[in-house]
Amino acid sequence: MNAVLIIAAYLLIIIIDLPYFFREKNKTRLMAVYSFLVICGIIAGILLGRPEPPVSLSDVIANMLNLSIGSD
Amino acid sequence: MTKERLSNIQLSMLFAGFLYGNSSLLSPASSALQDGWLAFIFGWMLGFILIGIYVLIYLLNPSLTLIGIVRRNFGKIPGSAIGALYAWYFLHLAAIVLRDFGEFSGLVMLPDTPMPFIIACFGLLCVYGLKKGIEVVARTSELLTPLVPLAFLAITIGVAGIMDFSNIQPVLAKGVKPVINAGFGVLTFPFGESIAFLMILPLARKRNSLMKAILLSTLLAGTLLLMVVLRDIFVLNPFFGQRAAFPAELASKLFPNINIYPLIYVNLMIGGGIKVTVCLYAAAAAVAELFGISDYKAFILPMTAFAVVLSIWLYDNVMQMFIFANKVYPYYVLPFQIILPLLLLLVSFIKKITRSKRLSSS
Questions:
Q1: What ipTM did this prediction achieve?
Q2: Helix, coil or strand: residue B6
Q3: What would the pLDDT profile of B24-69 be if each residue is shown by its tens digit?
Q4: Which terminus, N or C, of chain A has the lesser number of Cβ atoms within 10 Å?
Q5: What's the gap in Å between the CA of B209 and the closest CA on chain A?
Q6: What are phi and psi of B110, to 5 degrees?
Q7: In terms of CATH, what superfamily is B8-350?
Q8: What stretches of B133-258 show up as alpha helix (H) in DSSP?
Q9: Considering only CB atoms, which chain A residues are within 8 Å of B287?
Q10: Across the interface, do B328 and A57 touch by the CB < 8 Å criterion?
């Protein structure tokens, strides 16, 4: 249900943004970047809706920082 | 696409609203306890220097956005990579403010409403503003930012009767170190976050009085925030204030007989709304410039949707939010707010000197 809602929301977003695709000269680039953002959003949204959500982003950033400065 | 232009007063109001943003709610210097006001002043003074550096970077590279500046000074490929990191940072910052808003609403105002729904509604409001253009957002901030001090005054006057001025003592009881640590936190939140304005400064109509306008709004927003910090210390015991999730909201609840804490919400809607909008604009404009897309508005909706998802992914609970804000965030933003801008300033200066030498020799 969660996945369906997210995909439906993103479909609505794409429909609203269609005029920008027609107006843009660099259609391929816009399509590529736009698709990347949409796919990232859909995947993250679906993962967050699962019973076991992924590790929080703040934990990921804290671990990366600890790794870079060699701290615990 | 029509070129958007901002007057200096619009830019000042946008800047002051951005600085006030969510900082009034979270009391950035509370870790220094009763010396929070000293820590805030220390961070504020450093903030003046940092913001001066940001404006100077722009003035050395006129009419260029942050992406143009990093590309010009660091080369196309390394500059684009740094630009992409900045785009991520602006998106992340928008998600952080959205989450602060969601946590406050979920804990205080609308406890039965699911947080993702609150955040999505707030995000939609920002999308509406940005789809109309940053000029419209700036005009709105010109109207709404002056209301922020009024809401602050209403709360402060209301709780004036229960203020205990001895809460400020003893001064520097634990030495200078906690003050410096908290002051550094104040520098990174909110003053350093104004790096996002390097994406907006090229839209200014008058370049010659830009530094004055920006520093004046830093003075105004800083004064207001200092008064918020002092009010929270006077009204709440500093130890109690440090443990409160939202000290400003707690202080406003002590207003006798009348329920005025929704005014805090109004402040957050105005300041937080401006901050999220500016961050989303900066992120969308950065991505559009990086990939040579003519209209940044094409990215507003997918980026806001992604920021909403990110804001839910950020923390597991409100405690993790405060731990991240106090212990991780100041170090995470160090390269974005201090190291890279200082490098940019240095390279811009060197390039300007070599350019003028070449011109004088030829």
A1: 0.94
A2: strand
A3: 777 777 788 889 999 999 999 999 999 999 999 999 999 899 999 9
A4: C
A5: 35
A6: -125, 70
A7: Amino acid/polyamine transporter I (1.20.1740.10)
A8: 134-144, 147-159, 177-188, 210-235, 238-243, 247-253
A9: 33
A10: no
